[in-house]
Design goal:
mainly alpha, 10 helices, 233 residues
Amino acid sequence: MDWLQLSDEEWTAIRLSLWVSAVAMTVSLPFGILTAYLLARGRFWGKSILNGLVHLPLILPPVVTGFLLLVVFGRRGVVGSFLDQYLGIVFSFRWTGAALACGIMGFPLMVRSIRLSVEAVDHKLEEAARTLGAGPAWVFVTVTLPLILPGIIAGMILAFAKAMGEFGATITFVSNIPGETQTLSAAIYTFTQVPGGDAGAMRLTIVAIAISFTALLASEFMAYLVGKRVHVE
């Protein structure tokens, strides 16, 4: 069973993938909630354009998304050059860039899940809170947010799972640097390109399946707990 033992490099790729996915999911969550609420309840010019931009990463080839990120956030990019020169923030060929790419690729799935939950909330409950003198922000925090928690959790897990499996955008934007940007998917790809790398690719594939399955089970369990709590209240 020696072939099941993970090497230090493989553990590094696993830890990096978990860290990048967690950061991508956490940072994109506030923007996901705001965007989902705007798309579900907003009435403004350009709503269809916003919806199209949000879902664009699902339609474009991941390599194209990665190239666009390189053009915009690279050291010589429109935004990247400013961030590097004045703030010292670098995304290209760094783990932070991998998190950015993963966050963008998983963002549409997060927004869609949360948006469906917002649209399912009964308007009468929010209107009742407003008649009692609650402001829009307080209504959202005390009424809407608890009701859409299952959708938020589902969106978070979907974004995390998408980030764990992302390959095209990340390898185009941040390359495949061991210990810095080599995520689980990139490590599997690397193993498939070298003679005798099948065992390593299989080990990491099993790990990827285990992590994804665990995330799905956790999502179902957390959504069940939240839904049960909301139902009781």
